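Step 1: inspect the first sequence and its tokens.
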Amino acid sequence: QVQLVESGGGLVQPGGSLTLSCVVPLRNFSIYPMGWFRQATGKERELVATMRTHRTTNYANSVEGRFSISRDNAKKTLFLQMNDLKPEDTAVYYCNAPGRLWTWGQGTQVTVSS
């Protein structure tokens, strides 16, 4: 079973930036398309960014142009650079493989507030 470990969240003012990280301890991590999801209080979990194995990326309309997903296969780590954060970005952020949905990690809380 894969144990996903997200980190990097915190409290940030509107317009600020954060970089999230997710360690995926799989020997063959590089073969999996990966994504970042988020779940705000009282809402369903949503997929906000994906990166396929050939580095093609896709973003939800709500984060397009502000968020950037990347990966370091050697370090088995997925990243999410978040810029120009807005209060509506407040949520718990999770990483996972969209096509497989391993057991969810604990996530990392992002709170955007002045």
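Step 2: inspect the second sequence and its tokens, then contrast the two.
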Amino acid sequence: QEQLVETGGGLVQAGESLRLSCAASGRAANVFNVVKMGWFRQAPGKEREFVAALTWNGGSTLYADSEKGRFTISRDNAKRTVYLQINSLKPEDTAVYFCAADDRLGRSLSTQSGDYGTWGQGTQVTVSS
């Protein structure tokens, strides 16, 4: 069974930092080292939006323009885990954050949720002002 599990969310004050983790198990773990991984978020009443993505070895990354500088995506293939570091959190960062796997071969990093075939359940991040 494919599975991605996000952890690390919570209630924080504006200006603080969080590191979200996404661990793969089952089939997702078996292919983790060769797939691209991404993070998305969905705020209440809004559509899911792209945050960041990286290649199988972390050698190439892609960020939403609005997130450059405060968000850092990384991965540890030995642990089958991808991370999202968020610094200087703002109330508008409040959302459910999802990790997802893109197993399309030979394609570039994608900002489109439809290109990601496996998703976690999400972790809630709430930023108070």
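Step 3: confirm your contrast with the notes below.
The first helix runs from residue 27 to 31. The chain has a mean pLDDT of 94.
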